[in-house]
Design brief:
Length: about 200
């Protein structure tokens, strides 16, 4: 973690391990970032098949208000999914079992949304928000790029205060305005920030 950070409260929902079709359903309206053998993809739709990579990150503005972030740990074509929301009213229901059955209700920390659907649990957490270090324009490790250029996007790194570290990312302009200015000015002035592309 970089030394320059700020904190905020969010709601963390864990959906467990999902089939990739369920991941696509959950992230249907999110902008995503991920890498595969073709290169790096930023601000694109969730891919129809799981990328040959370890993580996918996603973000969007909530329907009610505030920020929504998703982190997917990719494992053997499936995804272990966590979603952070600023407003509890934006918490997403667990995905359906198949394309013909839509999830209903809001997950609760103490109970599953439905015994027939994937279990989703939610709790309020404090998160640390850190300015990411931008990739340089001469960086050769990221390969070909699709969607937005990763060297043109300033990312924020959001880490819930949990025993097991799990890092979420989003473009900084998705953060609340009061969390943006001071954080980036301090990071630029000190040269400190979170590492690029942390896969924790």
């Amino acid at each position: 973690m970089g030394e320059i950070s700020t904190t905020m409260q969010m709601w963390l929902t864990g959906y467990g391990e999902l089939e990739w079709a369920q991941v696509c359903e959950l992230l249907a309206s999110f902008s995503c970032a991920y890498a595969d053998y073709e290169g790096f993809h930023v601000n694109v739709d969730c891919p129809e098949e799981a990328p040959d990579y370890t993580h996918l990150w996603a973000w969007k503005d909530g329907e009610v208000g505030g920020l929504m972030l998703a982190r997917v740990r990719i494992n053997a074509g499936k995804g272990i999914v966590g979603v952070l929301t600023q407003d509890r009213a934006d918490i997403l229901p667990a995905p359906s079992i198949d394309a013909n059955e839509k999830g209903q209700g809001v997950p609760n920390f103490s109970e599953a949304t439905s015994v027939a659907r994937p279990v989703a649990v939610t709790k309020e957490v404090a998160v640390n928000v850190t300015a990411g270090i931008q990739w340089g324009v001469e960086e050769k490790r990221i390969g070909r790029q699709y969607g937005a250029s990763v060297t043109d996007v300033e990312f924020a790194v959001i880490s819930p205060e949990l025993r097991l570290s799990s890092t979420f990312v989003c473009p900084k302009n998705f953060l609340p305005t009061d969390k943006q200015s001071d954080l980036w000015e301090k990071s630029v002035a000190t040269g400190k920030g979170e590492c690029r592309g942390g896969n924790r």
